[in-house]
């Protein structure tokens, strides 16, 4: 197609009116970061790891619970389907950004819908990323300090090692994690500076996966495993509507659109962004499928919303407690290293929303530090008051995340300001908008109905 064969060099063009340019602009590249280093562009592998780290976050912990609802076959098929849809929407963003000579997602939205489009995207990123980062902190609190759910206490790692003390209570543990880990890692002004921590975070996710797979194999040959359900149990209308509650979780699991332009703009060869995206999506879909499969095989219908909480029980194999701790520690460390990757576009977009006419955020240490500290404080407070990752995923996934991942890219195609969309593009865009709106509306209704029944009909 002519659109696909257009000159790729346009991706390097700097648009002065692009209000949501990433922190690193072309002039920043020429001068180095604060004049102290020389940056010639990010490598292919570094870009893949940064994008994969954006994708593989807390969503992986909720995916085994989606298998419990959907069954193995529809569950795996849905993970693959959402990966393909994500690839399609990112291709839309990249292609139409090139056509409109825009260097950021926000710039593309402004090109298509004016300033209101840019503001809508910035608000969506604000809601989505704050929600996701709150989920990260909730999981870290659950893993390290434990949680109480339905009257049952799930012990954290520090509880198990040292017993209950003042310094391993949830709030203090999260405060120390914030000050000692998150604060330093969020101080980098260039996303490529996080490529090594991103590589380590992906490796830790793989370690988590291999340990879980090993536990499943050992149990299979020693005690046996219960046969998992291959398809969902749909017995009435309520159980049918419940199937749609997994959609926001799966949407959240693949959201990375807000970082694609940031990563492309720092690439040594920006024309390689498509293979970067597809390599990252292939890696992440494989990890998602295997984690969902092994997590559900291991715990069956007892799989919790956050599968890490299942690893505080006796799994019935030699050295089970050691393996439990290894699983929880590897993923807790992974989330700590994912946090700054998701935080990066959040800070860029909140700056663009609050200070649209200000110079680059990289040039103002006061503004950079103030926004960073304020956002971390909000996330810390939210993590101490929101009880469940499923609640946070449902809210952000059914609202802001679905807009970022599906509705906004499809709307850009349908708007087609430069008259370059094909009939196939528009048909796919319509399909994705209808699917996203329908599925998430049902998910919100189902969750609200379940909450109403729990609160007013069967109070705890």
TrEMBL record:
> Could you confirm whether the keyword Nucleotide-binding appears in this record?
no
User: Transport among the record's keywords?
Assistant: yes
Q: Which GO terms describe its molecular function?
A: L-amino acid transmembrane transporter activity
Q: What is its main location?
A: membrane
From the Swiss-Prot or TrEMBL record, state where the protein is found: Membrane
Residues in domain Amino acid transporter transmembrane? Answer: 42-446
GO CC entries: organelle membrane
Transmembrane segments in this chain: where? 44-63, 69-94, 119-139, 171-188, 200-221, 241-260, 280-299, 329-346, 366-386, 392-414, 426-446
Highest taxon of source: Eukaryota
What ranges does the record give for the region Disordered, renumbered to this chain?
1-36
- Keyword field: Amino-acid transport, Membrane, Transmembrane, Transmembrane helix, Transport
State the Pfam families in the record.
Aa_trans (PF01490)
User: How is this protein positioned relative to the membrane?
Assistant: Multi-pass membrane protein
InterPro entries reported for this sequence: AA_transpt_TM
What name appears for this protein in its UniProt entry?
Answer: Amino acid transporter transmembrane domain-containing protein
| Species, as recorded | Microthlaspi erraticum
């Amino acid at each position: 197609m002519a659109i696909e064969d257009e000159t790729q060099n346009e991706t390097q063009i700097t648009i002065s009116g692009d209000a949501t340019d990433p922190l690193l602009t072309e002039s920043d590249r020429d001068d180095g970061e604060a004049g102290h280093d020389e940056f010639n562009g990010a490598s292919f592998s570094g870009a893949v790891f940064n994008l994969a780290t954006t994708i593989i976050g807390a969503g992986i912990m909720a995916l085994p619970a989606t298998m419990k609802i959907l069954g193995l076959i529809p569950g795996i098929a849905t993970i693959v389907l959402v990966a393909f849809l994500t690839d399609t929407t990112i291709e839309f963003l990249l292609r139409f950004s090139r056509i409109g000579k825009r260097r950021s997602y926000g710039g593309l939205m402004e090109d298509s819908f004016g300033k209101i489009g840019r503001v809508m995207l910035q608000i969506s990123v604000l809601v989505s990323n704050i929600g996701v980062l709150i989920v990260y902190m909730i999981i870290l609190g659950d893993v390290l300090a434990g949680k109480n759910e339905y009257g049952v206490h799930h012990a954290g790692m520090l509880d198990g090692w040292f017993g209950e003390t003042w310094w391993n209570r949830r709030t203090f543990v999260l405060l120390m994690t914030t000050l000692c880990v998150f604060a330093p890692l969020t101080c980098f002004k260039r996303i490529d500076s996080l490529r090594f921590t991103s590589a380590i975070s992906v490796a830790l996710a793989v370690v988590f996966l291999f340990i879980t797979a090993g536990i499943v194999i050992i149990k299979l040959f020693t005690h046996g495993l219960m046969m998992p359900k291959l398809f969902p149990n749909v017995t009435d209308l309520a159980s049918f509507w419940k199937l749609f509650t997994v959609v926001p979780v799966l949407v959240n699991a693949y959201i990375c659109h807000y970082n694609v332009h940031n990563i492309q703009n720092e690439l040594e060869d920006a024309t390689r962004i498509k293979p970067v995206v597809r390599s990252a999506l292939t890696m992440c879909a494989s990890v998602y499928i295997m984690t969902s499969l092994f997590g559900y095989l291991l715990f069956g219908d007892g799989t919790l919303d956050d599968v890490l909480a299942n690893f505080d029980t006796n799994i019935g194999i030699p050295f089970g407690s050691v393996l439990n701790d290894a699983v929880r520690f590897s993923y807790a460390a992974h989330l700590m290293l994912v946090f700054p990757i998701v935080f990066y576009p959040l800070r860029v977009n909140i700056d663009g929303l609050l200070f649209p006419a200000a110079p680059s955020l990289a040039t103002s240490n006061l503004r950079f530090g103030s926004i960073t500290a304020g956002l971390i404080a909000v996330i810390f407070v939210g993590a101490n008051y929101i009880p469940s990752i499923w609640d946070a995923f449902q809210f952000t996934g059914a609202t802001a995340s679905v807009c970022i991942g599906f509705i906004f890219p499809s709307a850009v195609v349908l708007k087609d300001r430069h008259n370059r969309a094909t009939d196939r593009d528009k048909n796919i865009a319509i399909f994705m908008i209808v699917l996203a709106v329908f599925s998430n509306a049902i998910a919100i209704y189902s969750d609200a109905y379940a909450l109403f029944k729990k609160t007013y009909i069967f109070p705890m």
